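User: Batch of two.

Assistant: Item 1 of 2:
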Amino acid sequence: MLRFSSVFYRHWAVLLRNKQQYPRARETVENSIATARQSKQRNIMNNALLARIQIDLADQSIEPKGYKKQIEKIIADTRRLGMPRIETEALRIYAQMILAENDRVLAEKYAAEAAAVTNRSGLRLHKLSALYVYGDALIKREQFDFARDLLGQTSRESERRSYHSLMSRISEISRFIPA
């Protein structure tokens, strides 16, 4: 029952984040973390912690360095326990945080690593999200030709899989690629 409660609170927090109701999202994700802690299931706890980090990043209320060690721990934990979906999510979030700090090369490395994990694991939708971050890093490194090709392929695959929210985000960042 605790596992179910934690997952429910986490999904609810994500919905609140998407509606930009950050204080309520934080409160809800803290409930998710508390019930995950009681359940003593690391995958549930890691998911809840990543949700909290994503809420804070969306609100832009934290300095990205504040969660680096926590994400590094989650990446190591998920690798050790063989949880590629959570590992991919952590790598992608880590890449986004590093990109926000303007370390484009390192962000590109972690985004590419997330995409590689998804390839090995068959996590297609997560691969598309990782490739989006990779493309964003390429744009910021001014590798426009590669970014255009990568994001074009990612957009087409997203359309094929009806991943409309990603298509919209790709469209937003693609405007930074010169014609």
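Item 2 of 2:
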Amino acid sequence: MFIMKNIQKKLSKYIRKNIIVEINRDSLSDSSILGYVVGVGKELIMLHQVNNNALILNGYVIIRMEDISSYFVNTGFLARALKVLNQKPVIPANIDIFNWHNLFKSLEKYPNFVCIQREKIRPNRSYIGEIVKCKPKSVSIDLVDYSAVRRFVKRLRCINITRVDIDSGYLTALTKLVAFEEDKVLTEAS
């Protein structure tokens, strides 16, 4: 294991290289994040996340650069298997990862729900829903619970956010389920 002094510059060389990296954030979680680097901003990095059990790409994760303690290039079975299975990263259009404010501005009209985490404050809590308002220092999210019901709008301070997930299979399914349930209620009401 090694600590990188200029991790931003080093990780940006992996964009469009089809190389899997394993990122460790020792101060935040026990598990590493596996994925292809698809973007590096001033404060954030975005990975096309790899599900190492299903051997598929499963959404994107955006994390703070400051939380990265180390990274490794994965050249083992997983990397070789994904090449054989023709799993290639895609860089999503119109997602600005310069900083949290820019990211949330670019996600205000996003078609799928997002998952926001504040791992230093509430390690086991996720905020899932639709971005409804973005200010320079905060973001408001229309929260959806695990039973696909909209709850209330929650404002989160950007300084406390450590991770955002988009386009995973779970988030895509939850978005569609909420839309289906809301359409069903509207149809029954008319």
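The chain has a mean pLDDT of 91.
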